[in-house]
Design goal:
The complex is a heterodimer of chains A (587) and B (355).
Chain A: H1 2-8, H2 25-44, H3 58-65, H4 68-100, H5 103-113, H6 121-132, H7 137-144, H8 158-182, H9 187-194, H10 199-227, H11 231-236, H12 244-254, H13 258-283, H14 285-289, H15 299-326, H16 328-357, H17 374-380, H18 383-416, H19 422-434, H20 437-451, H21 457-482, H22 485-493, H23 498-509, H24 511-526, H25 530-536, H26 543-553, H27 558-583
Chain B: H1 7-22, H2 27-31, E1 39-44, H3 49-65, E2 68-73, H4 79-88, E3 95-99, H5 100-108, E4 112-113, E5 130-131, E6 134-147, H6 158-161, E7 171-174, H7 177-187, H8 200-210, E8 214-218, H9 221-230, E9 235-239, H10 240-248, E10 253-270, H11 276-285, H12 289-295, E11 302-303, H13 314-317, H14 324-327, E12 331-332, H15 335-354
Parallel strand pairs in B: 1-2, 1-3, 7-8, 7-9, 10-12
Antiparallel strand pairs in B: 3-10, 4-10, 5-6, 6-9, 6-10, 6-11
Helix pairs in contact in B: 1-11, 3-12, 5-15, 7-8, 9-10
The chains are: A mainly alpha (587), B alpha/beta (355).
């Protein structure tokens, strides 16, 4: 499909460039069939009276009649906003530090950063309950050391939700920012300093500014994916941390009022689109979408520069104070020290899962009362678990290839075209992130039933690819933004055709972004539950589905054992890939 | 009715009933009379249910009829999947366990098929456990439990649970109006048999008083087990088997059956399913008291056929909701009231939580 569109796109002359949009066509068609159509059908129910099938606005009137749904929407946005804020604040220094490391060492460090990815979020959430709970690890240490008399309330409040969500999102933020940062020419900062800029000023006005596309992309990805979270707030939050997704799921699954669920979804979709527009105005979303086309002019840009200058001045003063207090050598350790702390935060729940997997107890309790291998035996002796594991890996691989290809070509199309539609197309590709997954899942079920794709692996792949495309597009688009288009032009001048330019120049140069996109797509599929529930019908079960079945009623340490096995397999794969990548490197 | 079950099925049903009545001795004999094997897919609640139902129902049914039973785990709330399955006629399940509320919702939308037998056929079944589209297999009860190591002054009723001065301790309740409203009214002195229709305003007034003292609002059964087991809270509401799991795991805790509300889970048939005949046969099979007694070995749920207690050891019976001792302290939750009021009350409860 894509090869055809490449062939069709006539290269060389700038005038015909809008035709690069052809590259986005496979993705547009794919999403139109497997996302827009099924979701539109379900949302259409919101204006239909469930009893007689006539047009009715009663679902919307019901939303308007009370403020509870607007308030829950507000809470959802507040939690997602804070999650994005903290993930960026914690993730930026880490990404900055990683970007400066030598390639090989960075690869190793990245494995640590990605650790939370490979632990199912169901298991992670329970791990946090064991760490932060009243008789949890932290409170036991604190009360044991007589630091506090009464256990601290660390979960079942907003703090608990933030810990859980930021922990889940920091890897996403770092992995999105990193390819952009490694693409920044560090000599520019040196040049600024040579020209007399103070280090702080050189950093904020040159490096930071160049890294902004990555920051904007990361912020957006984290914010939008947090909107759909509900398991973490349900388990780690208090009575006020209710997410809209939870209410929609209740309407779909418990009350079977799909008309009202459609109305709530439409409200959430609308609010998310509005926030995308605001985000665009404030932080320049279109700079990700439109490549280097817009340099940015006008008042907002001036304001941005003024803010950066102020931040630079403040940072310089803070830096001076810190140096006076701590001395130069300690100051130099601040960044690595902070980053190691963040990495410790990221791997802590997974480290906790390891002893839990070897527990002799029937429960996920810490510390384990005794040790044994019985839960690994349960896992390896169960064909259900093994099949689910194999299926999850296979589906995730195929999904990752499909989503990276579709998202990559779409990103390329958007970066190479200067059409004013670019913003709209970009927003369209992001839409699967915004629509609650349960809505996509139910919609897909109806479509798949007609196509005979229920309980097939292909159905799972298609559903997961829909969800993964936004991640791959944003990641690759962010890298392409910092990619120098003139290199393509140079290749074309030297006689390379479009395909050769792509495979010989563009792809090798944006490899970091492609790898990140592939991983995002892989993990999106690997950790996906909602679509698996509907599409698998319980027959072709995936690992998260199998875990979920086990934990609805009774949580047992098989989950921990599975997590450890998955973790070992994935780490081995990544190490091999890393070895392969570094040995095949040309430079 | 006549066109719903084909003749051979009816005959084999009768034979089956006879076989069941005659006890396990007759089972091998029946195998010979079974027709060509059909494979049915049944959706059970998953987790510990899978192996327990396999031993109690699936394997004996396979042995008795020669048909195959494949079990898959269904969602906690399978209604959406059920509806989608029937409307698209892609029957991934032939039988599915439903709660009473799920049964009512699905029935109202015309998504269930009749099970093909009535209370008169199995007189020892609890009358609430059977309706034209549903046969209950197990009874669960919403009660509370407290940690005996933390709560010295033993609470014995919902009034005590709601009395934070006399019975201090961290508490947890379910983040759901169902049961919570009833518990509040019971605490306020409404008798168990006069609960419905619920006095919503009065219930919220009582809940207002307890709200600041609820440390955790739980959302899933596994979470309530964990809360009690880890000592995160000292008292929690919950489903008896989930709290029993914490006690079985060694947590020093005690269940209070007094003023409990029970409800029933059981089998329902998706409308127009292609293997409805064998599925009906299977449902009928699950009414057998001996089979039901077997699942109580692993699951702390009550059998719906009260004859099952003839073979359940007394020690075990104490932990089951339908043992005579426990059952007389409790009442069944009224699904009709909830079906009519759930949407409205859920909305109010959600708003109430946020303030």
């Amino acid at each position: 499909m894509s090869a055809v569109s490449i062939g069709r796109a006539p290269a060389r002359t700038n005038r015909l460039r809008p035709n690069a949009l052809w590259l986005a066509v496979p993705g547009l068609i794919f999403l139109a069939v497997f996302f827009v159509w099924p979701v539109a059908q379900l949302l259409g129910l919101s204006v239909v009276d469930p009893d007689n099938g006539a047009f009715s606005a009663s679902s919307y009137q019901r939303i308007a009649a009370t403020d509870v749904y607007l308030r829950v929407l507000g809470i959802t946005f507040r939690i997602a906003g804070w999650t994005a804020f903290w993930s960026l604040l914690v993730g930026y220094p880490l990404a900055y530090w990683l970007a400066r490391l030598p390639d090989l060492f960075r690869g190793r460090m990245l494995l640590f950063v990605m650790v939370p990815f490979w632990t199912s979020y169901l298991v992670k959430t329970f791990a946090w309950m064991l760490i932060l709970g009243r008789s949890g690890v932290i409170n036991s240490l604190l009360t044991g050391a007589h630091v506090v008399d009464q256990p601290l309330s660390l979960i079942n409040n907003q703090f608990g939700v933030m810990v859980g969500m930021v922990h889940a999102m920091v890897p996403l933020a770092v992995m999105t920012m990193l390819p952009v940062m490694t693409g920044i020419d560090r000599r520019l900062v040196q040049a600024a300093q040579t020209l007399g800029a103070a280090p702080a000023r050189a950093f904020w006005l040159v490096y930071f500014k160049l890294s902004l596309p990555g920051v904007a992309a990361a912020g957006l990805l984290v914010f939008i994916s947090s909107l759909g979270f509900f398991i973490v707030p349900a388990f780690l939050g208090g009575r006020q941390e209710t997410m809209l997704a939870q209410l929609i799921i209740t309407q779909v699954q418990e009350l079977l009022n799909w008309s009202f669920a459609g109305a709530l979804s439409a409200m959430m979709l609308l609010a998310a689109l509005v926030s995308c527009v605001i985000y665009d105005r404030l932080f320049g979303l279109s700079t990700i979408a439109g490549g280097s086309a817009q340099v940015g002019t006008g008042r907002i840009r001036d304001l941005g520069l003024a803010i950066l200058s102020a931040v630079a001045a403040l940072a310089a003063r803070l830096g001076a104070v810190a140096q006076a207090l701590l001395g130069k050598r300690l100051c130099a350790l601040l960044l690595p020290g902070f980053c190691w702390l963040v990495i410790a935060f990221l791997v802590l729940p997974t480290l906790l899962v390891i002893p839990l997997a070897f527990t002799s107890s029937q429960f996920l309790e810490f510390p384990p009362p005794g040790y044994g291998l019985s839960w690994f035996r349960t896992y390896f002796e169960s064909p259900l678990w093994i099949q689910a594991t194999i299926r999850s890996f296979a589906v995730a691989f195929v999904t990752a290839f499909a989503a990276t290809a579709i998202g990559g070509f779409a990103a390329l199309a958007l970066a190479n075209s200067r059409t004013r539609w670019a913003g709209l197309i970009f927003a369209f590709f992001l839409a699967p992130m915004i629509v609650p997954r349960i809505v996509i899942a139910v919609g897909l079920f109806y479509l798949f039933a007609r196509l005979g794709l229920i309980a097939t692996d292909l159905g799972l792949v298609i559903g997961h690819t829909v969800l993964a495309i936004p991640f791959t597009l944003v990641t690759i688009a962010a890298v392409l933004k910092t990619y120098d288009q003139r290199l393509d032009q140079a290749a074309a001048t030297l006689g390379a055709n479009r395909v050769r330019t792509l495979t010989g120049v563009t792809i090798p140069l944006v490899k970091g972004g492609l790898v990140a996109a592939f991983l995002f797509a892989f993990i999106t599929s690997f950790d996906e539950l909602t679509i698996a529930i509907f599409v698998s019908g319980g027959i072709k079960t995936t690992l998260p589905k199998q875990m979920w079945d086990d934990m609805i009623l009774q949580l047992n340490p098989t989950l921990a054992a599975v997590s450890v096995v998955v973790f070992i397999v994935v780490t081995a794969m990544l190490l091999v890939a890393e070895r392969f990548r570094s040995s095949s490197r040309l430079d | 009715m006549t066109n719903l079950t084909t003749k051979p099925t009816r005959r084999s049903l009768l034979q089956l009933a006879g076989g069941v009545a005659a006890g396990a001795v007759a089972a091998p004999y029946l195998t010979g009379t079974a027709r060509a094997a059909t494979q049915i897919t049944v959706a059970d609640p998953g987790g510990p249910f899978g192996p327990a139902f396999r031993k109690a129902f699936y394997d004996p049914f396979e042995k008795a009829t020669g048909n195959k039973v494949v079990n898959v785990a269904r969602e906690a709330e399978p209604t959406a999947q059920f509806k989608a399955m029937v409307e698209t006629k892609s029957y991934t399940w032939d039988v599915c366990t439903l709660t009473l509320s799920a049964r009512d919702i699905l029935k109202a939308q015309g998504l269930l098929d009749p099970i093909g037998f009535a209370h008169a056929d199995v007189p020892k079944l609890m009358p609430q456990a059977i309706s034209p589209e549903f046969m209950g297999t197990d009874v669960y009860s919403t009660i509370f439990a407290y940690r005996t190591d933390k709560v010295k002054n033993a609470p014995a009723s919902w009034t005590d649970f709601f009395n934070v001065e006399k019975f201090p301790g961290r508490r947890s309740m379910r983040k759901n109006p169902i049961d919570s409203l009833e518990q509040a009214l019971l605490a306020d002195g409404v008798p168990l048999d006069k609960l419905y229709p619920l006095d919503i305003d009065r219930a919220f007034k009582v809940l207002d008083k307890i709200k600041p003292h609820i440390a955790v609002w739980w959302t899933g059964g596994a979470q309530s087990t964990q809360l009690l087991q880890s000592g995160e809270v000292d008292m929690t509401t919950g489903w008896n088997a989930r709290l029993q799991a914490a006690i079985d795991g060694g947590a020093p805790a005690k269940i209070i059956w007094n003023q409990g509300l029970y409800s029933i889970e059981g089998w329902g048939l998706p409308k127009g399913g292609p293997k409805a005949d064998v599925a009906r046969q299977f449902i009928r099979f699950c009414s057998d008291p001996k089979a039901q007694a077997v699942f109580t070995e692993a699951l702390a749920y009550g059998p719906t056929n009260l004859d099952a207690y003839q073979t359940i050891p007394a020690e075990r019976a104490k932990l089951l909701p339908t043992s005579p001792e426990n059952l007389k302290q409790m009442a069944i939750a009224n699904e009709d009231w909830w079906s009519a009021n759930r949407a409205k009350v859920t909305e109010r409860f959600n708003a109430w939580l946020l303030t």
